[in-house]
Amino acid sequence: MAANTFGEIFRVTTFGESHGKGIGLIIDGCPAGVRIEENFIQAELDRRKPGQSKIVTQRKEEENFIIQSGTLNGVSTGTPISIFIPNTDQKSKDYNHIQNIFRPSHADYTYQTKYGIRDVAGGGRSSARETAARVAAGAIAKLILQDVGVKITAYVSQVGHIRLQHLYDQHTETIEDNIVRCPDPVIAQQMIDFIMEVKKSGDTVGGMVTCIITGCPPGLGAPVFDKLHADLGKAMLSINAVKGFEYGSGFESVRMKGSEHNDSFVNVDGKIVTETNHSGGIQGGISNGMPINFNVAFKPVATIVQSQDTVDAQGNAAVADGKGRHDPCVVPRAVPIVEAMAALVLVDHLLRNKSVRV
Amino acid sequence: MAANTFGEIFRVTTFGESHGKGIGLIIDGCPAGVRIEENFIQAELDRRKPGQSKIVTQRKEEENFIIQSGTLNGVSTGTPISIFIPNTDQKSKDYNHIQNIFRPSHADYTYQTKYGIRDVAGGGRSSARETAARVAAGAIAKLILQDVGVKITAYVSQVGHIRLQHLYDQHTETIEDNIVRCPDPVIAQQMIDFIMEVKKSGDTVGGMVTCIITGCPPGLGAPVFDKLHADLGKAMLSINAVKGFEYGSGFESVRMKGSEHNDSFVNVDGKIVTETNHSGGIQGGISNGMPINFNVAFKPVATIVQSQDTVDAQGNAAVADGKGRHDPCVVPRAVPIVEAMAALVLVDHLLRNKSVRV
Amino acid sequence: MAANTFGEIFRVTTFGESHGKGIGLIIDGCPAGVRIEENFIQAELDRRKPGQSKIVTQRKEEENFIIQSGTLNGVSTGTPISIFIPNTDQKSKDYNHIQNIFRPSHADYTYQTKYGIRDVAGGGRSSARETAARVAAGAIAKLILQDVGVKITAYVSQVGHIRLQHLYDQHTETIEDNIVRCPDPVIAQQMIDFIMEVKKSGDTVGGMVTCIITGCPPGLGAPVFDKLHADLGKAMLSINAVKGFEYGSGFESVRMKGSEHNDSFVNVDGKIVTETNHSGGIQGGISNGMPINFNVAFKPVATIVQSQDTVDAQGNAAVADGKGRHDPCVVPRAVPIVEAMAALVLVDHLLRNKSVRV
Amino acid sequence: MAANTFGEIFRVTTFGESHGKGIGLIIDGCPAGVRIEENFIQAELDRRKPGQSKIVTQRKEEENFIIQSGTLNGVSTGTPISIFIPNTDQKSKDYNHIQNIFRPSHADYTYQTKYGIRDVAGGGRSSARETAARVAAGAIAKLILQDVGVKITAYVSQVGHIRLQHLYDQHTETIEDNIVRCPDPVIAQQMIDFIMEVKKSGDTVGGMVTCIITGCPPGLGAPVFDKLHADLGKAMLSINAVKGFEYGSGFESVRMKGSEHNDSFVNVDGKIVTETNHSGGIQGGISNGMPINFNVAFKPVATIVQSQDTVDAQGNAAVADGKGRHDPCVVPRAVPIVEAMAALVLVDHLLRNKSVRV
Predict the structure, then answer these.
(1) A6 secondary structure, DSSP code
(2) Which residues numbered 122-161 in A keep a CB inside 8 Å of some CB on C?
(3) Which class is C5-352 in CATH?
(4) What is the pLDDT of residues C31-90, one digit of tens each?
(5) Searching chain D, which residue's CA lies closest to the CA of residue B30?
(6) N- to C-terminal Cα distance for chain D?
(7) Cα(D179)–Cα(D196) distance, rounded to whole angstroms?
(8) For a Cys staple, C305 with which of A103, A234, B258, C202, CB 3.0–4.6 Å?
């Protein structure tokens, strides 16, 4: 029961709490012969790390990782790759104010109810810090995918009411040019201003991340339960704060007619493509070679700098005081996490596909 | 690699093609001592079967199942439960018109590309008929869940542009009173009229199914990859024609502030509940005892009674002629499928939860 | 938790009880394009079936199978292959004499204790009849292995005190020439005579099956938990009545020195082989290209035609009366089962090996 | 594909090479509320560690472990428990003499053939050092099993030709009184003298470990593929240098009659037991409450201080020079490894058994 493991062949198992010794992961099933570029892994971690701009949490965390096994002279050997990311920010904090309190819309109540015990410090296992392990694993997945021409690009498409038009039709070169990671510089500035405004009010706001995958070969995915979009959906929904997933025409397809929704096949210079892409690059659960695109909805972060009514472990009325540094909006840092989880799904199905024919 | 298996402890494996000898499933991991009520299983299958009303496909298919193993005097023995549903509608048809054609937005092209071979008759494995096996398995899951007070109710909340308001706040007793399975009789009639209109034009239309789960004990789900909503999302996205999934506040949460989104805990007669339920009954990936609710978006059925441009297996331009009987809108029959998949997720996590504490 | 499933990629799930409607299996993960030769599957089933000679149970069971899915014109399509073997011998029997009794060295007591319910008729799921499903699945595995030159041959190497010398050095062409399936005709006759003698006395006797696999490519298996011999060992130990497994030098290696046990590598016409084969074709858990060989020990069948002291479900002293037809020695019919399980292990690792390098 | 993961619910994943930064493991699925006694874990590691006596390798390795996650104040929280054991003996050595050589009966050739790359230093992943991670995980499994009264005891029953009689009938209190871990002090001294003699000659010798498990509740195991003894067998065969496994009557059962082999049930003070225990505590793959007992055969260590003929990576004749420190006989240090793997199997089936009835 792989509660902390993701994937069938390229299997990633993560561990670690927010304020323990550190977090980390094991990749079991990484093929031999992959060049593990540490600079690239660090660069991906840096895209996710706190304190990178004024619109994210100001917590200062260095995320320096150590590869503990599975490589030889920078090349994977086919044995498990273990990566450890020490917690640098371990100074014992005062968590007494929440020790006995169930914070609204946090995992405090459910963890306590399920396990009868919970690690209060920094949210323990429920901390978004866990996603750093996903990003490190995803970086290695990306290195494998690059070699077969698969490119995964995510960006912020909505913050609160501020939304990009034509979600799937964007110039993605400019994404990293601004701190909110929105390809449209004008919309990006509006998003940044709005996040700063929300932050000043001690509040938080939701957002949406859009992801586009190009160069995916046809044939990835499985017909029934492991449809490619079903695995992508689970991957995204497993990210903290995600409330929804749609691919291709998504929820908009509810209003459409079959005659307008169907994607006609055409032969362009010997390559079979579709004229439209309402299918989002996936038909019958299997990639068809067209761009794969999907949207991921993120709720506003639960930690706000306001006092909220709640109850304590004994069920008595209590007040949760919002202190400390937090993200006013999670999506700018969620972009590399969405890419990482997409990479894990694709590399796993890429490897699975190797045994589909004799 | 469980491409055709779903679940970790309560494991369902399905098989079968649309026009082969039949379809079926094995449940491995069903606890011993469950009363397997065949009437209930048949009733669930009948909710899904073709020809049940004027707004669904007029194909006449009896879905009589045979339990081949795993029970003794109507009680599960703990050994694998195998169920077979023979195909009654096997008269050899003429599929020459699509033998060599890739129908738009069907699985023809992707199956052929992945496997190098495909079963054309009735779409083979990609046929929605496969979902009958899910419904049969889900019925057994429901029998287990009933005994712990879990109730799963799905209904049609949108067809094309016709949409219910207050999706999660409905009187569900009336759902089965109309053929479209919408709890509001007035909206239901509008949906039925619209579907008939679409049908006359030889077209199809999308729709949305909403699901509410009450009585779910707190503690089901896992903190990281196997979040309860992530597994529910994968389950729904694995159903044919599904394009999107959202739970609780879903995509609407993108526009919300943390201060309005957070669900405050209150003690009501010694039971800890939340005042609002934007969390959709799940916090940190684990059920909190509140109603679990989610929406599932279905695209319009790809089979339309119109000629469409496409290509053949050789890449030559071709025309796909839409013949035969099909569903103008899939959601009325999708309701029991959504319930079944939700039941499989919940019963699996219910059993998984038994080993979470010493 | 794959209690009734075997394999990681080529996944076989079996179901069915001895006196229910039938037994069967699903193969999920069989590659597309495999020619499924029904005659070969039937021939393998016939090697296992009861009543084939005077030294096995005289029960008359036809084992006619039906392929219910997963093939098109005799070729696998990559979708689940479901095979059903109806029980022909279903006439309701009188099991009252054991209904409430725990037969010595049967699964009666443990099933009842574990599940609180058990299917008494013919032993239910614990019946050796379940192995017919393994043989059918193994036949398909063999068809895949044949095409890559892997040949799996098992034979009877010991019955009671009568034992072949040079277990791994035999002319295997003659195995099927005698009903006990021993390659040495003289020893074979001694075994047959001894089994007939045991049978007359209403008793049973143990035996040993030896298996040799030639043509296995180097590189199959995994370094740590999924060592090739560990998976072979589990496969064999999962067969009814098996008490022991050894490969290569096996238990004899306990007495040996490293200097005599080590297999020196030599280059023979450009192919690296070992001079001796104490390794049994597997080093570090991975096949090295030399013949893989192992022995499987079977205990005497528990069903004897003698009255035995035991207890009933209430713990009262009782007598178990041995009635009915049974195998005086299981090994002649175990030969194809051993081959089938070996084939399942090898085909699974063959497919797993496809994703081990980029 | 859990090549480096063991278990279904209590899942242990190991990583690390002999001369890398260290080795370690993650336990995913450890129940919450287990008191993790670090002293006990260290004590178990010390039983396995090199240099503990004159009859094992004189390599000096401290095996100090760090628990990196999953506990709070010494109690498991239900989240993944990660343990790291740094390699202290990392001084860069000269491995040029084997860099390009395939040592006889080592994993050099098979790893190179499978992966196209291998970590030569200390054998990399094939080093017995990996078993330290198993011992650490097994120690935690033992802590859980202790609380339900399960006791696992292994000892050395044979070294070369020197063998204990009545393998399963021993006074186990004295096992740790001598460095070879044999319960009979006289036989123990003979074994020690023989191992010293073998060591002086630069050679190695095989041995056998016997394991007895008492207090195991009835009902653990599964009827078909996951028979308790099949999982124990795989666990043992996955340990380096193991060549055979037998339980209960084992290979001796081949010579026995059913009438002498069957274990009669008797009621002793209201408890159902068997008069004999040829079943080795397991019937139909499920524990029956009697002591579980089995033997594990270990081959002689491949590393000897002698020159051996072999080939290099180019297939040229070469000589492998045996240098360095090694174990003349592996069984004294294998005792805690056998116990650890048995503990992993039992705790996993103990947890699996919790969901077997509604």
Answers:
(1) E
(2) 144, 147
(3) alpha beta
(4) 999 999 999 999 999 999 999 999 998 887 778 999 999 999 999 999 999 999 999 865
(5) D356
(6) 30
(7) 12
(8) C202
